[in-house]
């Protein structure tokens, strides 16, 4: 599903963020990416949805090599992956329904198709009764669920989560985790960067630890391994 | 692109115009001012061109034949004229005909010349047309050398000055138009940039969920197009109206047969199409300039 081969990333300002990473993530896996701040976690995640391009090496997702793909093909590759963030990135002037529908509108899906699928994913994230609300009218956890709904509405093979619980209290964080697990159970591969020790240590999954741009540890059902 | 997407792009583009209120106003004003000047110059240049080309057709050498010349002398002269290089057409105007047209041109006062019918003081005239208007000069000097030629007349200096003036007007107009076009374009580019900054987050999300650059570009394309086209409306109306007023007032004035203005009907239409085209071009170009920089992320 996701294969990284000898991936390096040096930013134009000389910062060496990733220094030779090899990794294989199979279809349907749930992977935590942990590590201290500034260790290259963020760059690692950003390269997966081709926000950043590796300086060297290959990143193959769904048989597409993100290191070599042409600029104009990137949109089509992104349609097969969902991304969620710490700050949700919802559009404040669109309702919950419209925020989710937006992801389908911009890839020119038909109206009837949009209505059917949006209501479907809103049911998965249990927000069907809040479809008409605006982001400022719902809680942080609910906003993140809207973002998840938007990320999965186009049926991506991979869901990439960059600190999805970073802004949420513990209880709400668990709510989000249960939804992510459900989505994972449906066969979607999930890669999640996180600082949440409690979640990683409780909901045991594969853990990849990144330090100084290298893989420091890669264990099935691993623990968080850092003090905080 | 699909039809419903086009509808979406148009409504988004329209919304942007309203959202950027004052900058939209500034851009449209810039286009309006630019097109007013461009349009005025267009009307001027088209009329000057028309005038110049009608003059060019009229550039002719009038060869006055000696009154003493016999009919055979005139025949010799005609064949000599025909032999000169670059002569296109020769028309013979006998003195009787010359007098007729003189009397006709003077109207009521012409009647006093009727008494001259019996002893016509005018010369027979050959009207010589050059193949190439610029060669009129040379041909005229050649003709002056020929026997039985009393005098040669052609408006050399006036024409040269006129040709120089028309080309000067064309050059000034062109520079003015280009300068104004760039000004308007940069104002539009700035307006669109504001739109883009205001919608930065939206664009980021669009890119994340897999919108193509083309799809993201469309609303800005529409916005630029609207800025340009809306800016063309006032100049077209004002110029077409003023020109038609001007044209009809010139039509009723006497004695301007010498300068034929182009009629309002096809001219105003041509100008409208051109101004709309220039407005649309400037608007789209300006908007694409600022979007391009932004989408390279």
Provide structural commentary.
The complex is a heterodimer of chains A (228) and B (297). Chain A is an alpha/beta fold and 228 residues long. Chain A has one domain: Rossmann fold, CATH 3.40.50. In chain A, 32% of the residues lie in helices and 26% in strands. Chain A has 7 helices and 10 strands. Chain A has helices at residues 41-48, 74-78, 96-105, 111-124, 140-152, 170-185, 197-202, and strands at 2-10, 16-25, 30-34, 56-61, 64-65, 81-85, 158-162, 189-193, 206-211, 214-219. The relative contact order of chain A is 0.19. The model of chain A has no long low-confidence stretch (mean pLDDT 93). By secondary structure, chain B is α+β, with helices and mostly antiparallel strands. Chain B is built from 9 helices and 4 strands, in the order ααβαβαβαβαααα. Chain B has helices at residues 3-19, 21-58, 71-83, 95-106, 136-144, 156-198, 200-208, 213-252, 264-295, and strands at 60-65, 87-93, 125-130, 149-153. In chain B, α8 runs antiparallel to α9 (264-295). Chain A binds chain B through residues 49, 72, 75-79, 83, 89, 91, 102-103, 105-108, 110-111, 150, 154, and chain B through 1-2, 4-5, 8, 201-202, 204-213, 215.
């Amino acid at each position: 599903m996701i294969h990284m081969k000898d991936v390096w990333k040096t930013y134009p300002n000389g910062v060496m963020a990733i220094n030779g990473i090899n990794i294989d993530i199979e279809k349907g896996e749930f992977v935590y990416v942990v590590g201290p701040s500034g260790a290259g976690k963020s760059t690692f995640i950003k390269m997966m949805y081709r926000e950043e391009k590796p300086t060297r090496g290959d990143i193959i997702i769904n048989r597409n090599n993100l290191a070599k793909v042409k600029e104009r093909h990137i949109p089509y590759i992104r349609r097969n992956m969902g991304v969620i963030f710490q700050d949700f990135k919802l559009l404040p002037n669109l309702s919950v329904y419209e925020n989710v529908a937006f992801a389908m509108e911009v890839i020119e899906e038909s109206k009837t198709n949009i209505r059917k699928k949006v209501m479907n994913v809103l049911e998965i994230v249990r927000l069907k009764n809040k479809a008409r609300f605006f982001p400022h009218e719902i809680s942080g956890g609910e906003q993140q669920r809207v973002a998840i709904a938007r990320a999965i509405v186009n049926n991506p093979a991979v869901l990439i989560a960059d600190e999805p619980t970073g802004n949420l209290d513990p209880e709400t964080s668990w709510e989000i985790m249960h939804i992510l697990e459900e989505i994972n159970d449906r066969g979607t591969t999930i890669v999640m960067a996180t600082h949440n020790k409690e979640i990683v240590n409780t909901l045991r999954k594969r853990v990849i630890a990144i330090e100084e741009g290298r893989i420091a540890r890669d264990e099935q059902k691993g623990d968080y391994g850092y003090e905080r | 692109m699909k039809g419903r997407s086009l509808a979406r792009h148009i409504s988004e583009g329209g919304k942007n115009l309203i959202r950027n209120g004052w900058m939209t106003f500034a851009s449209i004003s810039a286009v309006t001012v630019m097109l007013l000047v461009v349009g005025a110059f267009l009307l001027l240049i088209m009329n000057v061109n028309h005038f110049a080309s009608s003059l060019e057709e009229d550039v002719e050498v009038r060869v006055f034949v000696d009154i003493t010349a016999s009919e055979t002398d005139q025949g010799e002269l005609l064949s000599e004229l025909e032999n000169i290089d670059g002569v296109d057409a020769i028309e013979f105007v006998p003195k009787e005909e010359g007098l007729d047209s003189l009397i006709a041109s003077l109207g009521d006062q012409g009647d006093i010349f009727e008494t001259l019918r019996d002893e016509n003081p005018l010369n027979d005239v050959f009207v010589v047309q050059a193949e190439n208007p610029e060669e009129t000069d040379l041909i005229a000097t050649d003709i002056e050398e020929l026997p039985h030629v009393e005098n040669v007349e052609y408006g050399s200096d006036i024409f040269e000055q006129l040709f120089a003036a028309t080309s000067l007007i064309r050059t000034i107009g062109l520079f003015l138009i280009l300068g104004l076009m760039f000004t308007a374009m940069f104002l539009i580019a700035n307006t669109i940039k504001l739109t883009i900054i205001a919608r930065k987050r939206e664009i980021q999300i669009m890119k994340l969920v897999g919108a193509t650059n083309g799809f993201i570009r469309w609303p800005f394309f529409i916005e630029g197009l609207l800025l340009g086209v809306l800016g063309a409306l006032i100049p077209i109306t004002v110029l077409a109206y003023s020109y038609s007023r001007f044209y009809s007032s010139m039509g009723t004035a006497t004695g301007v047969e010498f300068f034929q203005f182009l009629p309002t009907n096809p001219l105003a239409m041509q100008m409208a199409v051109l101004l709309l085209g220039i407005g649309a071009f400037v608007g789209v170009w300006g908007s694409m300039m600022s979007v391009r920089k932004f989408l390279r992320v």
